[in-house]
Amino acid sequence: MKRILIVYHSASGSTKLIIEIIKTRLEPFFKVDTIRVPINYDYSDLVNYDLLIFGFPTFYLKPSPSISEFIEKIPKLKMPKKAFVLTTLTFYAENCLRIFKTQLLKKI
After folding, report:
1. Looking at the DSSP assignment, which residues form a beta bridge with residue 31?
2. pTM here?
């Protein structure tokens, strides 16, 4: 069974709620692990997943600091990974997704 890792940051709980719904919908078809952005993470574990999902709020028109820090700590992976990104926001995302894409493509 294919494995999915969902990494998320949620400030008010909105992003967490969406992540929980996505996880519920995926679980009949995939092995899904969900983690709130951790302080310490064994990044070597990322190779065990077929898909990475990142969820976070837009924070002052950018990805939240905690998800950005998580991405910056990922060592460059030898094999590309598929990823899905979702962001929640109050007004508009501005450059948030473009900034995150640039960060993520350097790593995966």
Report:
1. 3
2. 0.84
* Helices 65-73/96-105 angle, 10° precision: 20
The CB-based long-range contact list for 69-73 (8 Å cut-off, 24+ gap) reads 69/37, 70/7, 70/37, 70/38, 70/41, 71/100, 71/103, 71/104, 71/107, 72/103, 73/41, 73/43
Instruction: Determine the 3-state secondary structure of 47 from DSSP.
Output: helix
According to the model, what pLDDT value does residue 12 have?
Answer: 85
What pLDDT score was predicted for residue 91? 66
Mean pLDDT within 46-59: 94
pLDDT at 73 over 90: yes
Strands 62-63 and 51-59: antiparallel
* Six-digit token string for 98: 């473009």
Domains for the chain: give ranges and CATH numbers.
3-105 (3.40.50.360)
DSSP state letter for 43: G
